[in-house]
Design a protein that fits this description.
This protein is mainly beta and about 120 residues long. The chain is about 5% helix and about 50% strand. The chain is globular.
């Protein structure tokens, strides 16, 4: 298994969750990492990405200011801190490892995908 996502669950609107995605060292190193989500009946959409090393991060407009992506190189893990959650954030969240070191919002630019973790935000 290349990527293992965890941390999803049920939370009330306004609450917080932190998603984790553990990767193999080979998958994690030198590659950008990203988070995507897919709500029931909707297309998969980009959430956040962070490049390798000092390369920057990008966020979807819908989560900007509420979500933060970070990487722990020692643990080969990428996190998604989600604050001020809204019911429309309800989705299965997927982590992914890109083909390049720069962050990307394009799903086709990601080589490996985790199995997904469900986040449900109640109103």
């Amino acid at each position: 298994v290349q990527l293992q996502a965890s941390g999803g669950g049920l939370v009330q609107a306004g609450g917080s969750l932190r998603l984790s995605c553990a990767a193999s060292r080979r998958t994690f190193s030198n590659n950008a990492m990203g988070w995507f989500r897919q709500a029931p009946g909707k297309e998969r959409e980009f959430v956040a990405t962070k490049g390798w090393g000092d390369l920057g991060s990008s966020y979807a407009n819908s989560v900007k200011g509420r979500f933060t992506i970070s990487r722990d190189i020692a643990r080969n893990t990428v996190y998604l801190q989600m604050n001020s959650l809204k019911p429309e954030d309800t989705a299965v969240y997927y982590c992914a490892a890109a083909r390049s070191s720069s962050g990307t919002v394009v799903a086709e630019n990601y080589r490996y995908w985790g199995q997904g973790t469900l986040v449900t935000v109640s109103s």
